[in-house]
Amino acid sequence: MVPNARFHELLTDIEPSPTTKGHASSAHNGVREHLEAHDTFSDRWVTSFLSGSYARDTSIRPRSSSDGQERPDVDIIVVTNFTENDHPDDVLTEVRDALEDGEDGYPVERINKRSVRVVTWQADMDVVPVFETWNGYMIADRDVGTWKFTNPPEHTRWSSERNTVFDGRFKKLVKLLKWWRRENPSGKRPKGFVLEVLVAMHAPRNETHYGEAFAQLLANIHGSYAQQAAMGQKPFIADPAAQGNDILSKVTVAQWKDFIEKVRVHVDYARRAQDEDDMEEATRLWRKVFGDRFKTTANPAKAVNYSTTAAAVAPAGYTFPDAMAAPTTPRGFA
After folding, report:
1. 322 found inside a domain
2. Inter-residue contact 127 to 99 (CB < 8 Å)
3. pLDDT beyond 50 at 9
4. CA 194/CA 247 separation, integer angstroms
5. Residue 215: how many CB atoms within 10 A of its CB?
6. Whole-angstrom distance, CA of residue 102 vs CA of residue 31
7. Same domain for 105 and 186?
8. Cα(82)–Cα(51) distance, rounded to whole angstroms?
């Protein structure tokens, strides 16, 4: 069994760097200030807040772009005084025009289904116009030409609550699952919040060794959905913020089947790694799961009974700190 310290090191490594977070904070604050102060859009402006993985502190380090920059994706919810009488096409067009307007305007890459995409050297941002209702928000959907219910703050509250239930391990397990997906892609979806819900539903709450917890997570996901996927079906998984909404609605059956098959393969790797007494072989298996960023040594020694913490006594050639290493996690954006 690989010591828990190796997983803490991986978690530190896949965390967005302070520089990346600083760039993103500067970028999203600039966009928000621009819209709030705009000559005409200021009349539409009510307030704004962040949504998505950065708001919930479940993001992982961004992929490097072609120019070598790590630009994060940031979701900006802009609360407006639009109403259901305003057509989503018109609303999103008005947001785009306001973003581009003026000497301090922002380059708009495209108008998406529910947002306007802004790309800067610091961050890629989706600006999402909504208006408030008594129990959440309505979001403009240009594909269907209507407004739909959403509640991003409830997702953030739910994620924080889950992290408490898991004694601080929930968000770290989410990051591990997201990194595993990046290293072992099976298609565009499922991703993002779907992965968070799967962790909440299927990860063991009391397991403190991240390798064991991750092995059990994959096994539980496969055990819950493999038979259904084999029959060409996918489950209904309720949105924690709106129980009537299916978080898998954008995931096709083919994408779900491919995902479950990828889980099946890696369940075996993870379980073998956890049960393996040979450190070199256990590390090799975990590197198949998490990729090359899972640390190894030039000449790892073989061992038979490794402790689940870094306090274990290591054989010559493979040393560990006297205490468990813990990642230094920068605060989220504000």
Report:
1. no
2. yes
3. yes
4. 6
5. 25
6. 12
7. no
8. 19
